[in-house]
UniProtKB/TrEMBL annotation:
<comment type="similarity">
    <text>Belongs to the thioesterase PaaI family.</text>
</comment>
<dbReference type="Pfam" id="PF03061">
    <property type="entry name" value="4HBT"/>
</dbReference>
<feature type="domain" description="Thioesterase">
    <location>
        <begin position="67"/>
        <end position="142"/>
    </location>
</feature>
<dbReference type="InterPro" id="IPR029069">
    <property type="entry name" value="HotDog_dom_sf"/>
</dbReference>
<dbReference type="InterPro" id="IPR039298">
    <property type="entry name" value="ACOT13"/>
</dbReference>
<dbReference type="GO" id="GO:0047617">
    <property type="term" value="F:fatty acyl-CoA hydrolase activity"/>
</dbReference>
<protein>
    <recommendedName>
        <fullName>Thioesterase domain-containing protein</fullName>
    </recommendedName>
</protein>
<keyword id="KW-0378">Hydrolase</keyword>
<dbReference type="InterPro" id="IPR006683">
    <property type="entry name" value="Thioestr_dom"/>
</dbReference>
Amino acid sequence: MAPHNIENLEAWMQRMRDVGSRHSQNNEPGPGYAYQAFTTTKIVDADDDSVTFEYTVLKSDCTVMDTWHGGAIAGLIDNLTTSAVFTQKRKYFMYAGVSSDLHVSYVSTVPIGSVVLIECNVIKVGAGLANISAVVKDKASGKVIATALHTRFNNDSQIAAIAAKM
């Protein structure tokens, strides 16, 4: 792991934990789902264009049959592929941007308590869009659970304008 990669990524994840914690503690509307994702996910490895995370499937992530729900998978992929952009030294996407497309293919499922690896790869980061892919695998068996392609739109200028008014 290159030092700047892990520092940028850990700083981003800590900001997300702080925001989610503030909303949760004050019972305010906000990104509670992000708080859970960033407090229960562990960084395994990171470099200039990829990061691997480890995650344990929680009861709150599961269907009534105690298998990992597709919506929970998509939400986690959304947050973690976004985080992968923060492994790079970048000129654009100083903030996270917003999703413009998230395509997830569900290949198999795993039960509650399973440990999974989420391998995120930055395909390209440009001035307007970032493209990131992900593969979710069961850690024990290596079985692919889901694959994803995620496109983010850069809204740095809107965020900067809002921050300037505060």
